[in-house]
Design brief:
By secondary structure, the protein is of the alpha/beta class. It is built from 20 helices and eight strands. Helix 5 (about 95-110) runs parallel beside helix 6 (about 125-135) and helix 7 packs across helix 8. Helix 7 (about 155-165) links the parallel strand 5 (about 140-145) and strand 6. It is globular, with a radius of gyration of 22 Å. The termini are far apart. It is about 50% helix and about 10% strand.
Length: about 475
Amino acid sequence: MAKKIKITETALRDAHQSLIATRMTTEDMLPILDSLDKIGYYSLECWGGATYDACLRFLNEDPWQRLRTIREHCKNTKLQMLFRGQNMLGYRHYADDCVEYLVQRSIANGIDIIRIFDALNDIKNLKTAINAANKEGGHAQVAISYTTGPVFTDEYYVEYAKRIADAGAHSICIKDMAALLTPSRTESLVRAIKEALPEMPLQLHTHYTSGLASMCLLKAVEAGADAIDTAISPLALGTSHAPTESMVAALQGTEYDTGLDIKELSEIRAYFMTLREKYIKSGLLDPKMLATDAKALIYQVPGGMLSNLLSQLKQAGKEDQLTAVLEEVPRVREDAGYPPLVTPTSQIVGTQAVFNVITGERYSMCTREFKGLVAGEYGTTPMPIDPEFQKKICGDMEIITGRPADRLEPELEKLRAEIAEWMEQPEDVLSYAQFPKVALDFFEKRRNARAGINGALLDKKNMIHPV
């Protein structure tokens, strides 16, 4: 039977997160939003992930206003976000009341599909977000953080997929953030999950880092996948995704035809080509990020993590040690119980690998986050951690074996009280909860900018109508 394959366009979120460290502004998005809405995409991935942090920290933008702006211009296409389960859009575990409120406000401001994942594939860390999305009438898509290692067989992923279905997910996504899938493994994995859960919609998200993404997507479609993630071609390839137009062309005229028009996509491409040229000229887009590197299959490093590692080494004046750090990453990951490398575990493992290399002595210096990962503060790792290594890293720290969030008291009301003088919209408390210092800096800039505008208007009024 013919099955129309759904396309999720990632240009507004993961494509630029992977290539230019999430620096695309809302201003850059605005001219193309109405055109994107007319294409017929299944969804536009446009929010969540690192965009929230980047808006506040680097772009001096309100992430909620960005979402509302996109919703205003894209009324016909589902809007999708990436949500880190109990980590929300930040880097620690948050109390359940915060998780529930972020889900509620996201849907209220325009999000249709919430792609929820946990960096450790620990289902305990996903249930609050899934339940909240269902309560608010959103689509809860739960992502499997794909990785490789002794425990990560098709059987492991099928069992996890069953737990996801039992938890109330509407669909499942295989999230291959580090481009570790090969075509044959993709076919095997997709077929196994679809055989186990034939009624559950299945989507594939993979990156082009190793050069295999297009082949993996095609194999996934042939094996029964229902939807795929792609990026419009100027923001595709390298550490980003397979080109949208190429995948549409590959499926055109087959039983999997997407129904999208390549001519219409070429107009979208033309606009993003101007942005690509702008980013290259400004130095935001490093052409190195567009290159294929099959060593990703060895080092298991996601594209965004690669750029972060390079940045850390540059700051330390050790850029020449990138290869040594990449070789250290799999060793650190093995020591830490084989966590998949995705935010926040990618940053935690990557930074520890950097320290191990630049200090010249492994684990002579450990970050607070790495100690927390080994101690169970982020959840249960896919494989047990050697007790001796745990003792070496954690010392007298308490080892957590249950759901980390069960240890957290509700915190929303306390946070609201702390920023009462700064709140201008209900969502401000969520910015503060996730990024306290960054949010306060943003709130101050926002107030000063508003005061400056009001002052300028008052001056203009006084000039025209002198008292």
